[in-house]
């Protein structure tokens, strides 16, 4: 199946930017996308994964692990034997709402247990998502316990399964992308806060954008290959930019003034704990790297603040303004002094 090119997506700038930032630095944490149905959330993730450079992976390893990493960090490769590798596309794994915990984290391979009396591990969806994206549509309808577990694994990069006499630890580094419709159930604040970024997507209301969306969708469906050829150059340019940003990231300098500004902003908003500040700093750094800047400036911070902070605000019954407006207002107040 042909994937709709990432660079052909019209509008939805905030969502696209958040996904790009997570691709530059997965340590910013997952991305939560709030909004209407049919706003191209799943298309955007697939498009982004498809434009990323293919990754070198050990052939036959269920965790697609990196041949450059020590074999001991992977239960499959640790068994020894040759580690041939090949190039594979960056995985995008869908986590269906009805998925059981066993299916997600992996479980005892019952067939092998019954037929051969062997205790073997059957990897789950987290194994397949390693080094790629895990997408959950309507994450707010998923069991809290499972969301908690996913956030833990995403943060640590390791999936640990202990049950029925099995004990397995395998690499599971992925960017968690959850989409939700706030009208259909809410995420607990403790869970919200653990997502790195939160963005809002809406169906475009201006005419030229709507026309453009429909025109491109129609052209893609009539001739997918021809349509994709038209965006090959743009996608390749974006891929180059991403690769350069990843290489640049470890050397990025975050000046004290930027850190101080981040702290002042979080203080003004009264966000709990230091997670907000840390995410704000990392996000601004990834954005600066993506844009080819040498240092992380206050301007990067200002632009990214709504995505990094809007889901961390405590409810204020006296404040009628929405969370995005509250962040914007705080940015104006803090940086006008
Ligand atoms: Zn492996």
From TrEMBL:
Protein name: Mg-protoporphyrin IX chelatase
Pathway: Porphyrin-containing compound metabolism; bacteriochlorophyll biosynthesis
Keyword ATP-binding appears in the UniProt entry: yes
The enzyme's E.C. designation: 6.6.1.1
Alphabetical list of CDD domains matching this protein: AAA (cd00009)
UniProt record similarity statement: Belongs to the Mg-chelatase subunits D/I family.
InterPro entries, alphabetized: AAA+_ATPase, CHLI-like, ChlI/MoxR_AAA_lid, Mg_chelatase_ATPase-isu, Mg_chelatse_chII-like_cat_dom, P-loop_NTPase
Alphabetic keyword roster: ATP-binding, Bacteriochlorophyll biosynthesis, Chlorophyll biosynthesis, Ligase, Nucleotide-binding, Photosynthesis
Lineage: Bacteria, Pseudomonadati, Pseudomonadota, Alphaproteobacteria, Hyphomicrobiales
Pfam families referenced in this protein's UniProt entry, alphabetically: AAA_lid_2 (PF17863), Mg_chelatase (PF01078)
Record keyword Ligase present: yes
Superkingdom in the source lineage: Bacteria
